[in-house]
Amino acid sequence: MFERFTSDARDVVRGAAEHSERVGSRSVDAEHLLLALLDREASRGSFALASLGLADRKESVRAALADARRRAGLSQAEADALAGLGIDVSDIVSRIEEVHGVGAMSGDRKDKGWWSGRRTFSRDAKEVLERCLRIALAHRERRIGDEHILLALTARPGVPAEVLADQGVTYEALSRVLYGGGEARAG
């Protein structure tokens, strides 16, 4: 499938692996793909994000992703649902971090156990990459660009879609910018 990726899309995948390595994660997650997209410049995906006003709010997206990682990857919607059951996720995170240190629930196991060093893609990241192929095909595009990865992140439930939606970046808004019906069109 990667042979169908444009150089921008390949750079996003490489960037996601680098983000994963930086935080000591053993797998590349959907959040890492979003972080790599935020790093991009002069691509269709970066143009679409800028068109939707995200260029000046990238740090708030990064902070929201870091908060979700501290909650063991729970989205705010999931934390709110648990709160409705009387479970305070923030309190649980605080208690665990008191005993085990900040970021203990992130799932990263730095220096614990044997590991080959090769980062795999999590189920969520694989689903994003599979969905970006379907999105490109649905638009009759033979190559998969970083804009397709961005669309795929917004097309499925989870932390990346929730964080982007909080910033006004939804699948529908991106589609309008990328494929028409909006004021600007990524080219």
UniProtKB/TrEMBL annotation:
UniProtKB keywords: Repeat
Residues spanning the membrane: none
Pfam families per the UniProt record, alphabetical: Clp_N (PF02861)
Domain Clp R residue range list: 2-187
Gene3D superfamilies on file: Clp, N-terminal domain
Superkingdom to which the source organism belongs: Bacteria
Protein name: Peptidase
